[in-house]
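We read letters as residues; the fold follows as tokens. A sample entry reads:
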Amino acid sequence: MASTEPEQHDRDFMQRALQLASETVALATPNPQVGCVIVRDGKILGEGAHLYDNYDHAEIVALKQAASRGHSVAGATAYVTLEPCSHHGRTGPCADALISAGISRVVVATTDPNPMVSGAGIGKLRTAGVEVLVGVLQQQARTLNDAFAHFIRTRTPFVTLKAALSADAKLAPSTTSRVPGQTYWLTGAEARNDVHRLRHASDAILTGIGTVLADNPQLTDRSGHPRRRPLLRIVLDTYLRIPLSSHLVSSAKRDLLVFSGSTAPDTKRNQLLNAGVEIETITEHDGRLSLPTILARLGERGILSLLLEGGCSINGAFLARDLVDKVILFYSRQTLGAEAIPFAEGFSSPSEIESSLFNVSRDVLGEDTRVTGYLRDPWPTPSSAD
């Protein structure tokens, strides 16, 4: 009788498949990041990952590589980080391809997060007599595709709130002690490099007009890694106060989207449009733009992941409306004092949010500390222990 428990070699080959999947950050979206390794007698016959622009899913890439090397995969094991698809999309079902190739065993990290098709690929494989083992390194595989799992069920982006904070949990020095438009760094180089990693892994980044006026940010992905579509930079600006001379406007190349209210001045609107800025009008209530409407609009654009890099007002608004899925806080060793700007409007301190987080991790980056946790699980079923 076949074992239903993973062996160490199963974990090792799945780890390789996860490595392949992780190399497709910003290249697979809006599809999931998936890696596949095909093995027989401890030897890798073929491997690959899915890149959106190349169409082929990871299983097909691995099968083609094995064939190009002159290997038959009959009787081999396929390690796949996400359940092989069972339906026709831009390509045919990968479950059918594995069956046709003679794969005798498939090890799957996690099932498909779409409840409409979850388990169908596994069921098709098992009906064809293929042995299937599910849940090997599941949490690692899920973390890679949190945004896809959230989007496929809600059609809205997975929202991550990122904030750099002082040791006394403040967001920035008081406005009276700062020079407008001058960047103030709380954290060190390691933490700032990690922020660019987060930006690279995101489809879009969002801030408010207050941050633009105070910091004049660029909000660019300076990781140096390739991406298949530009990082969409988004500003919430009800009255279109964004300066034409700002870094954001002056660098706009079909990658800057401003959400404004219906009462924004037409003259400024035309100036921004002529500068290459895209503007979407949202009906405001009490001077505020509807955040659920904004998320729905972004979902229509195929934006799966949204990184919030806002100020006190933006952080408070998204948190108060329960629109944040994941929180990443960078704590520096600096202190800013009682007059400094708080983390989020309407919240006494980040500890209010931290107490609600689960799957929390703490890491040291140089002299700073990063706290990561979830407010909402994007996956429809609990994670296995493996």
